[in-house]
Amino acid sequence: MQNDKDKIIDLIRQKGPCLPSDIYRDLNTNMLFASAMLGELVSNNILKVTYLKRASSPYYYLEEQKEKLQNISNFLNEKDKASYDLIKEKKILKDTEQSPLTQVALRAIKDYAVPLQINHQNQQILFWKWYMLSNQEAEEQIKLKIGIKKQESKKKEIKKPTQIKETKPKQQIHSTSQTSFLEQTVRYFKKNNITIINQEMKNTKKTEIDFVIELPSAVGTLQYYCKAKNKKKINDADIASAFVQGQQKKLPVILLITGEMTKKSKEMLNKEFKGLKIHQI
Questions:
Q1: Domains and CATH numbers, the chain
Q2: CA nearest 248: which of 120, 141, 110, 114?
Q3: Tens digits of per-residue pLDDT, 71-81?
Q4: How confident is the model at residue 258, as a pLDDT?
Q5: Helix H or strand E encompassing 136
Q6: Are strands 260-261 and 233-234 parallel, antiparallel or unpaired?
């Protein structure tokens, strides 16, 4: 007789990537038990788990079912799906050649976009490869993109990092007051009768804070994702990051800023990020 873990493995083998709700319904058990079994199978490296989530739950799958992850790509949000389609078509993308919105989305669709960092002419260059593309195929395509000749190719090595460290430009804090940026933001919320549901400081300089907030309205209380940035110039990448994170949380977005928007960010706000609200504090 099969034990519960074997039943789960067989079920996923038959159906492909599954949510915990799929498991507990088919096994006629409860969600807590199914989640515990799935967690143990992941810990033992028998099952894999997706970054993509549906109703806050990831999908579970077997290593040999990686190709079937494409079957659940329709649950990506609109912006992430556009980047998914792009990397699926192109197979290799150079990070610096992509729009800020695409750059953010590529970092979000980790199931489908794999980062590759190479060292070329003493420069670190970041590429993204389609997850089903082999490293050898990726290497050949990248060599063509950066113009490495055959005799040079042996000297170049493409490495897949375990973790990419993104270098962020130094931000100028746009505040002459001794009051902390968090206090300044909280005061703004209180002044406008906004309730903080939760908050998270995003960097050590305390110049970027994420909130989930509730706003009063004529139809009742509305919940928003809010990013507060204490920065002199707000560029299109700042707006794209807030927009994508709001989509991932399935919440409308408010961006609170202390500085000024660049000309390009103003243009993109009306074209690419409709519905995103920006307020200066």
A1: 4-70 (1.10.10.10), 76-159 (no CATH), 181-280 (3.40.1350.10)
A2: 110
A3: 999 999 998 99
A4: 93
A5: helix 135-146
A6: parallel
